[in-house]
Each structure stands twice: as C-alpha cells, then as structure tokens.
Design brief:
This protein is an alpha/beta fold and 578 residues long. Among the domains are: 1-64, no CATH class; 320-446, Alpha-Beta Horseshoe (Leucine-rich repeat, LRR (right-handed beta-alpha superhelix)); 453-578. The strands form five sheets. The protein has a 17-stranded parallel sheet, with helices on both faces. A three-stranded antiparallel sheet has the order 1-5-2. Helix 5 (51-63) packs across helix 9.
C-alpha cells in the first residue's frame, strides 16, 4: 500500500482514485492484484507528476470497473463540466439508455441505485449537496471531478459512445451519430461531419436519422429543435431548461414512438398534444415547472409509464385524476396528481400496486360528494402496499378536516420512508406511530395544539429528518419535552409562519441525537428559541430571517454565549438574511 501511495506523489485526486479502485480488492487473495495496480501506475508519475499521470491513474480505475459500470461512467459525458446532476434524473436516463441490467427480485431503479452507490464507493462519482425543498423533501445530487470528467469524455468519444457539440467541442469530427449532447448555443454549436471534408457545418447539416439519444443544455434558440421530426429512432430526449422549446415542437416529439425518456422540465410549453398517448414505450415523463395546466386524457394510454412528474411554474399541481387511471398499472412514481370529485379515479388509484412514490393534491371541498371520494381514496391508499414516499395536501382547501379521511386507512403503508401531511387534519393518524421505516416527515397547515405534534411521532425509531412548516401549530409555545426522545432525529427544520407563536422550547434530555437545527424567523412571530443548551448533540444551527429581526438577534446572542462555554466543541452557526 505504501508503495502505491508513493507513486501517487501525495496528490489527493490520485490517492482517492486509487483508493476507490483498491476498495474492491480487500480479500487475502488481493495481494497479487495490488501489485499489478502498482506496476500499472508507471514510474514516470513518481518522478514527474503531471496531469497526464493523473489521467493514467483515473483510466486505470475505469479499466477495472465491471463492464456494466463503464457505460454508466461514459454516460456522464452527456452533462457539461461541473454540472450538478440530480441523482434520480441520472438513474432514469441510465435505464432508458439500456445501461441497467435486470436482476430478479429488484426493480431497474433499485439496480441502477446499486450501480450508482458502487461508483460513489469507488470515488468515480462525488456526492454533492442535497437539495432540500418543502415540495420534494431531500433530493440527492452528484457531480464528477473535472479530471475524471475529462477522462470519461475522452473515452466516450474514442468509442463513439457520444457526439458532443458546442463549447469546447466546437469543430470536432464525427461519423455516424448515435448519442448527441449539445453544450452550447447556436453561435458556437457547429461541427465537422465525416462527409464534409473538414468544412465546418452548422447543426442544420448534421444527419440525425441514427440518433438514439438527444440532450440539450442551457440553450435558447437552436436549429436542432426545428429538426426534431428527423429523430425517428430517439429513445431519450432530455430538453430540461431548454428555453427555445415551443408547443409547435411537441408535434414531432409525439411521433417518436420508441421514446422511453422525455424530460421537458423548466421549459415554457403550455399544451401537451393528445397524441402523446401514442408513445407506447414511454417510461419517464417529466414536465415539472412548465406552463401546463393539465395533461390530456390520452395520457392514460401510456401503459408502460413508470415515472410521471408534473407541475407548472406557479408550483400548482395540474394533472387532474380521471377515469382510466387504472390502466396505468406500470406507474411507480407520480408527483403530483389532483383528486377532486371523480369517484372512479379515486377507486382506480388502488389498482396501481407498483406505486412507490405518490403525491396527492385534494380539491373541491364544496362538492357534496367529496366525503365519498375521500373515503374511497382511503381504501385505495390502504391497498398500496409498496408505497415508500407519500405526500398528501391541498393547495386550495384550508379546512381543518381536509385530510381527516387518513384516519380511515385500514392498512397504512408500512414501508413508508417519507411522509408529508400538508393540509388540515384534526390530529395525526394513530397509525403514524407504527411507521417503523419512516426516515423523513414534513408537516404543514395542520394547526395542531398541545402535544398533538410531537407526541405521536417522538418514538419513531428511524425518523432522521423532521420539517415543520407554515401553520403546523397554533399554540403560543411549542415544547419539546423530556419525554420526546426522538431516538434517531438528526435534523430539525422549523419554518413557522404563525403570528400567535411566541416560543419554541427544548427541555433537558429531549432530542438527544439532534445535530442540526434550522430556524426561519418571520416578522411578528417566534419571539424566542429557548433551551438550545439542552440539545446535547447539537453541532450546527442555521438561522434565517430579516436583518434586525429581534428573535433572530436573540438567537444569535444565545448561540454566542453557548459557544463561549464550550471552546473545545464549537457549534457551527450559519445566518442567512432574507
């Protein structure tokens, strides 16, 4: 081992890459493999460490990957350098590209997750900061070290795995194009094709008939969008944040009958044509943060669709559940679907037995039949045994009983890891205390009093993240009592917007494992945070609010005093002024 480290010349990236390789060879029979690795590094790296020497070590790590991981690594060259990649987006793309093999007893997403974790373990992919949002909870992201990225681009180009256009790839020459990723605007998006005899050509001169995968990053107006009708064999189309996309382009998209992945997040489309129902091979549809107001009824014909995400730029949910929902039995994730007065849709929801992630928005409180529909929803949710992630709330209903039907679940989803309750309910359901797999809980707009908030959840054995949002509580003081042990709680986020709230208080020996406390101060409420000294494991406090807010200033002074009393164990304090 010392000889190998010596050859890395103390360079952190070289050591990390080699460590990621050697971690797979830890048995007693691995000595021979370690010796082969040492010899493979080469002597010139030891005497003259260079960028090329670093790339040699990264290439060595890549060459020792299993064959099924090499394609996943080359696929990272689709994204621009330094791009922060949302993990779930990456995994779904791997699947659509055919890079993930089936394993009996596991879903393809579970297999892809195994691939991802292996690449992280080998330091080929770096975890990035999680994105924390009230809407989606904790969203994992990743990135690739610049040097690893360069090596992956080089290998992907050498093997004709991908064709890159724009930015640093301007003027590169390609033959048959199968996977195309465009990293720049039209002004830099030019290319030399194999038949152009070295003459620079714009994208309009490229041959698109063999392209299987197209990704466009950060573009406004580019000719490739006007040529979408030529991509007849496309399986992956990722146009996330492509501002140049217009409704007229979707006519061509709806004729891509082999399409498996369609990413239109962050675009300005206003209407999805009914012909989208003809994309019989589609597995992923992402139309979040668009200008859509609904999906066409024909979407129920997408019987292979597994992942559906939809919202508009106003962050209002806009897919209204209708009769025919039960045809979409392949669905594993839906975020978000609106339930109003359609009894048939509420009943058919229970037929989606593969569902793992589900976000519901409840509407039509004035409908005289809404109790029948909600009772049916309760029966349907009781049948969804595979649920791991459930968000249920209402953007329009602020009644205290909007979610009371949750008390009527005969069989709560025992495998739940994430739960968000975001509308009125008279108390937390009794079954919530039985959710032994629950890791993350979000509560808002419930108007609880007394011990209704902490009491039912304080014994959950795996609850790690607790986020308390607007109007989740309406008493003047919220108390974390000594009896509220929260055995696994690491992160508590308080984002109250309640004028009556005067204090949050932590008693001795409460939340003994809490490491991070985040508090957002709003004008006119939450005057005090008391007892932070009683949080024995607290390591970080995040504060947010307007400059000059008395409650914020008081908390800062309290933390300053606490840190003065623990010089060898200082808490990290971060303040964000809004």
């Amino acid at each position: 081992m010392n000889k190998i480290i010596k050859k890395c010349c103390g360079l952190p990236m070289a050591i990390i890459s080699i460590a990621g390789l050697l971690v797979s060879y830890r048995t007693s029979e691995s000595k021979e493999m370690w010796e082969r690795v040492r010899k493979s590094i080469g002597t010139h790296m030891e005497s003259r460490p260079t960028l090329e020497g670093m790339k040699q070590i990264i290439s060595l790590s890549y060459n020792h990957l299993h064959h099924y991981l090499k394609g996943c690594m080359m696929h990272l060259s689709f994204f621009p350098e330094d791009y922060v990649i949302v993990k779930n987006r990456l995994l779904k793309r791997w699947i659509a590209e055919g890079l993930v093999a089936e394993i009996q007893g596991l879903t393809l997403m579970e297999v892809a997750d195994i691939y991802y974790n292996e690449l992280v373990r080998r330091s080929m992919i770096d975890r990035a900061d999680d994105i924390i949002s009230w809407r989606d909870g904790k969203v994992e992201t990743c990135r690739v070290h610049n040097m690893v990225y360069e090596v992956m681009v080089s290998k992907a180009l050498d093997e004709n795995f991908i064709s890159l256009v724009g930015g640093p790839y301007e003027g590169m020459s390609y033959g048959r194009i199968r996977r195309l990723s465009i990293h720049g605007g039209e002004e830099v998006a030019s290319i030399k094709t194999a038949t152009s005899h070295g003459r620079k050509n714009a994208i309009k001169e490229m041959k698109m008939e063999h392209v299987r995968s197209l990704s466009v990053f950060d573009l406004n107006h580019i000719k490739v969008l006007d040529r979408l009708g030529e991509f007849s064999l496309l399986r992956v189309l990722d146009l996330e944040d492509c501002m140049g996309l217009e409704d007229k382009h979707l006519v061509h998209v709806c004729r891509m009958y082999m399409l498996r992945f369609l990413g239109l997040k962050g675009t300005y489309i206003t209407n999805l044509p009914p012909e989208v129902g003809g994309l019989e091979n589609l597995e992923t549809l992402d139309v979040r943060e668009t200008d859509l107001r609904d999906l066409p009824k024909t979407v129920s014909k997408l019987e292979k669709l597994e992942h559906l995400q939809i919202s508009n730029k106003e962050y209002t949910e806009c897919w209204i559940a209708r009769k025919g929902l039960g045809r979409m039995k392949a669905l594993r994730m839906v975020n978000t679907i609106v339930f109003g007065n359609d009894y048939a849709a509420a009943k058919e929801l229970g037929e989606l037995q593969k569902m793992r992630e589900l976000a519901l928005d409840i509407r039509d409180p004035d409908n005289p039949y809404h109790n029948d529909v909600r009772g049916t929803l309760a029966r349907s949710l009781s049948k969804m045994y595979s649920l791991r992630w459930l968000s249920i709330g209402s953007k329009v209903c602020r009644d205290n009983d909007t979610l009371d039907f949750l008390h009527d679940l005969d069989m709560p989803p025992a495998l739940l890891q994430y739960l968000k309750i975001g509308a009125g309910i008279n108390k937390l359901p009794n079954w919530i205390s039985s959710l032994n797999n629950l890791v993350e809980l979000v509560i808002a707009w419930t108007y609880f009093v007394g011990d209704q908030l902490f009491g039912p959840i304080c014994k959950l054995p795996r609850l790690k993240y607790l986020r308390l949002g607007s109007n989740c509580y309406k008493d003047t003081e919220l108390v974390a009592q000594t009896a509220h042990t929260f055995p696994a709680l690491k992160y508590l986020f308080l984002n109250f917007n309640i004028e009556s709230m005067e204090a949050v208080r932590f008693e001795e020996n409460t939340m003994t494992e809490l490491e991070t406390l985040s508090v957002s101060f709003w004008k006119g409420e939450l005057n005090r945070v008391q007892g932070m000294k009683n949080l024995a494991s607290l390591q970080e406090v995040q504060l947010a609010g307007q400059k000059g807010n008395p409650a914020l200033n008081c908390a800062m002074e309290q933390l300053k005093t606490l840190n003065e009393k623990r010089p060898g164990n200082q808490m990290k304090v971060a303040v964000q002024y809004q």
